[in-house]
Amino acid sequence: MKEVTDLEALRDTLAKELPYSIQAVESVKHQLIFKYNPAKTCFVSEDSSLVVIKEVSVDDLPLFTIYCNEKDVSKIESDLRGILSWKDPWAIGCVPNYMVPVLKKIALSHGPETNLEVNDCWVVILDPKVKLPEIELKPNWEVKQIPPSDATFVNKMWRYRSDSSLDLIKAQTNLGLGFGTYVDGELASSTVTFNFGLLGAVATAEHHRRKGLAQITLAFGSNYLRSLGLNPFGYVETYNSPSLSMIKKVGYTHTHDGPWMFWKRPKPTDK
């Protein structure tokens, strides 16, 4: 594996492999646009189509984006040596489904099955040609970018929060990548774009649910991301079909399955 510094070329190469490369493409775009410092580290194989991106993380759980096309899956084991540590926890997001059996086999050769967690997800992408629904607001509603001062709401509502996730969400809202719908000045529904491209952590306060606020928030955030030249995408856990129905109403399409894989994953925080 060799480190890549020409991110424009990497972006263009990955864009030819959509939809399976969606997280890799958008991750590279985010680095180009927002210039994270320290920067993400991108590696490519010299023998296959494998791309590994070590994402920027404030957490103790290193996050990787890994992509290769289906014909090269059998070649990835040797390339991943020295990239993934088997002594420490890590996560791989949006793994194309055809890569999971091979990655699982590699992982289980380094430790017991109890170390490995695979969360099945549907990948949803907003096609650039799809027109977003018109946003209709009541007089006491407002949809806008979330200031860092409201990051605590997003973090508290997020199922996968950790001891350091609030810092991550604040950093993204500082970049204008948090979005929310307010009712009477109170943040009622929110979402945030993570630094690897995902528009996620969608949450609505319980007393404001079933009013269409999540759809408004997603539509607003998606439109903003499009204005930056980004291609909005997200995940929905396969047990959560109501959320899939909701996000489809905004215009997203379920393109493929893309599980998340965790090695020695820490338990979610109760904070």
TrEMBL record:
<dbReference type="InterPro" id="IPR016181">
    <property type="entry name" value="Acyl_CoA_acyltransferase"/>
</dbReference>
<protein>
    <recommendedName>
        <fullName>Glycine N-acyltransferase-like protein</fullName>
        <ecNumber>2.3.1.-</ecNumber>
    </recommendedName>
</protein>
<feature type="domain" description="N-acetyltransferase">
    <location>
        <begin position="130"/>
        <end position="271"/>
    </location>
</feature>
<dbReference type="Pfam" id="PF08445">
    <property type="entry name" value="FR47"/>
</dbReference>
<keyword id="KW-0012">Acyltransferase</keyword>
<dbReference type="GO" id="GO:0005739">
    <property type="term" value="C:mitochondrion"/>
</dbReference>
<dbReference type="InterPro" id="IPR013653">
    <property type="entry name" value="GCN5-like_dom"/>
</dbReference>
<keyword id="KW-0808">Transferase</keyword>
<dbReference type="InterPro" id="IPR000182">
    <property type="entry name" value="GNAT_dom"/>
</dbReference>
<dbReference type="InterPro" id="IPR010313">
    <property type="entry name" value="Glycine_N-acyltransferase"/>
</dbReference>
<dbReference type="GO" id="GO:0047961">
    <property type="term" value="F:glycine N-acyltransferase activity"/>
</dbReference>
<comment type="similarity">
    <text>Belongs to the glycine N-acyltransferase family.</text>
</comment>
